Amino acid sequence: xxxxxxxxxxxxxxxxxxxxxxxxxxxxxxxxxxxxxxxxxxxxxxxxxxxxxxxxxxxxxxxxxxxxxxxxxxxxxxxxxxxxxxxxxxxxxxxxxxxxxxxxxxxxxxxxxxxxxxxxxxxxxxxxxxxxxxxxxxxxxxxxxxxxxxxxxxxxxxxxxxxxxxxxxxxxxxxxxxxxxxxxxxxxxxxxxxxxxxxx
Length: 200
Known about the structure:
Blueprint (H helix, E strand, L loop, with lengths): L32 E4 L5 H13 L3 E3 L5 H6 L3 E6 L14 H8 L9 E7 L11 H12 L3 E3 L15 E2 L2 E2 L2 E3 L5 H17 L5
Parallel strand pairs: 1-2, 1-3, 3-4, 4-5, 4-8
Antiparallel strand pairs: 6-7
């Protein structure tokens, strides 16, 4: 079942100047690595808001080099939810294979990871941003420290696998129903991440 991705956050990916997607940032310039994948462009839109705030480049996880990912700390990772109700491979993007085939072999233990998700809380109220919950589960199991958890206040969904201990596991955006809030949410989240030790 389709789940409209929100980063992409009813703004299109063309609503802002395009940001180069490769290569990933040099660690000499910025230690933050930003990785995403998208189905409709919404996740890329939201990712663009985040990258504008931290001066980073976004990289599609399907194009990312393992060694480059491992060189960054922290990481910001984001995904849409497409396969609603699925227990795994929920995003319908390159993340689905990467999380299960590649992540186990990348040295990320001890690194900080911030997660963002994009979803449609009106059409898929029972599965809002579920793929972000999958990112949380697997990066946590890898030994990463998750930062950037946020309040569920201001959202109108029923269920979400991205909620842990009554908080979202990261930034959640809805480009279909709350696109006017996405950019400000991204800005506030980046400030939160800085307060949690993210250097930009």
